[in-house]
Amino acid sequence: MNQxxxxxxxxxxxxxxxxxxxxxxxxxxxxxxxxxxxADQGVEVVFPENQxxxxxxxxxxxxxxxxxxxxxNFLDIFAPLLERRDISAxxxxxxxxxxxxxxxxxxxxxxxxxxxxxxxxxxxSENTYEFSEYLVDILxxxxxxxxxxxxxxxxxxxxxxxxxxxxxxxxxxxxxxxxNNNLLPLTEAETCCGFGGLFSLWNDxxxxxxxxxxxxxxxxxxxxxxxxxDVGCMTHLNGILIKxxxxxxxxxxTELLAESETK
Length: 263
Fold this sequence. Notes:
Layout: E1 14-17, H1 21-25, H2 28-40, E2 44-46, H3 56-60, H4 64-83, E3 89-92, H5 95-111, H6 115-126, E4 128-130, H7 131-138, E5 153-155, H8 159-164, H9 169-178, H10 199-202, H11 204-221, E6 225-228, H12 231-243, E7 249-252, H13 253-260
Parallel strand pairs: 1-2, 1-3, 3-4, 5-6, 6-7
């Protein structure tokens, strides 16, 4: 990966990496890729091994008390690192988890008021970044085209990333750079893929139909790879793509960028 506008290797930056449950259990390579890309920029990665779920699944299921317990644990782990300046930011390769921490925690703090956790939430929410956001907006990373390696890429903007966090420019900027501004357009790109976490379990028929519609547009785009910023969407799309016999595959942006560095 190209150096950023500022030489981060001279800045002694340390960040905390939170990977999300599904990455930890099913896709550790996504977390490893995120760590590698940050290290390539001269950023020291701190990975608290006692990190657990951010609380989003229980929150979305309406179990706010249980979600609050998980949120409090997250804050107890990461807030002291920020307060002591052991790290300058929390970086997350997941739009949905980043949205939960930056926005939904406020609902829990309001319902279960605690001066300590309100203070912790204030510093955590201000210093939490989704991965592509951190690369582009904080590190100022600039990429160069990867010759013909990735000529047939398209991009699916995941819902939490685009709608909750208002992040769309940053991942597109990275992908446009490596494709030399030839990122393939995707019809109805901003339409949900149908995963939606628990939505795909509670409304499975609707979820599958939404996924089939997205896959139809992926096939029409001519893309070999569709890039996403959440492994939930990646799992859902790949399940349908494989079942339908399509050759296109969904890939997390961290894996794609890390792989491009080795070619």
